[in-house]
Amino acid sequence: MTLQFPEVHRLTGGIDIHDYRPAINASGDKVVFERTVKGRPTELYIIDDLASPVPRLFLPASTGPVNQTRPDWCWTSGNIAYNGSSSEKPELEVWIADDGGNTFIVPGIVRAAYPTWIGGDGQLVVMNADTNASPTPRNSIFDQSGTTIQENVNGIICTGRQLYGGMPAACPLSDILIAFAGQPNIRGWNGSAVATYNQNANYIFINEMDENGIFTSRPIEIDATIDQFDPLHQGRAPAWSPDGRTIAFESNRSGNGYAIYLYDFISGNITQVTDPASNAQHARFFPDGDNLILSLNYNGTSIIAWINVHEARRKLTGAT
Q1: What's the burial of 236, exposed, middle or buried (CB within 10 Å: 0-12/13-18/19+)?
Q2: Closest of 35, 108, 26 to residue 72, by C-alpha
Q3: In Å, what is the CA distance from 89 to each residue of 86, 93, 111, 113, 238?
Q4: Which of 215, 211, 228, 106 lies closest to 168, judged by CA?
Q5: 218 burial class (0-12, 13-18, 19+ CB within 10 angstroms)?
Q6: pLDDT tens, 10-61?
Q7: 316: helix, coil or strand?
Q8: Model confidence pLDDT, tens digit, residues 56-85
Q9: Integer Cα distance of 183 and 128 in angstroms
Q10: Which of the listed residues 110, 131, 166 is the one where a domain comes to its end?
Q11: pTM for this structure?
Q12: Does some domain include residue 303?
């Protein structure tokens, strides 16, 4: 049976232009994303009106780091968290910009990727690769002064083993519920001779915290084995719907390229919403929960686009 996928609505595209990792604003009418033009550093661009998409440079060169990646838009304040680096300071740092392009660096956080807002505008959960604690990487929560709030929100799995974790996504209905791309800290995972993180051999995990403040996590797919990697359950880059009901994530489980899947938090059902041939990645929900902004391949380059997933979400819940 041939799968039918939602129509793709293209927003960007051009020769020698690579657009990636979009984030949408609280009104659902603007998108910020990273753009790499051949021979230039990666910079944040913005589309001010999705109805008439004209990308422009978001940050003047004098106001931020040379390389700008992994934006996340806070729907409470309008601020954008992102990663910054340069040839002089190659380690990823966390920066924040307001909608006017004014920027500041979050002090003391280095080797931290995918900064994501949690609990409104006050805190950030990041993929923390700093070696001051283990395992590395793990997902940590910081405030905007760089103070550590939670060193490791991944915790352990049911076997008692710790988890590597990255690409965190905070549930909008909880200050502590995190979906992330993770794997157990064990040797032999995906054939590795040593315990090491492999971003291509992850499952999507969800954490929880007990009354004693202890974190545990489980794969969202109950058939995913935790003693050996099963590529049929591979997943990364999760994103929550605004109502906390659905998680969008990317997976190469078909072996034919990355596609976007939706997971229903209540029923546990999963459905595929893009063709692997398009290599769709880094999907985020619009505020209405009916649409996804994402990046995908088109005519040999990477573009920003959106799709409608209202019907797919409805079917996930079991509605007829």
Answers
A1: buried
A2: 26
A3: 5, 9, 11, 14, 28
A4: 215
A5: middle
A6: 999 988 999 999 999 999 999 999 999 988 899 999 999 999 999 999 997 6
A7: helix
A8: 999 976 777 889 999 999 999 999 999 998
A9: 15
A10: 110
A11: 0.95
A12: no
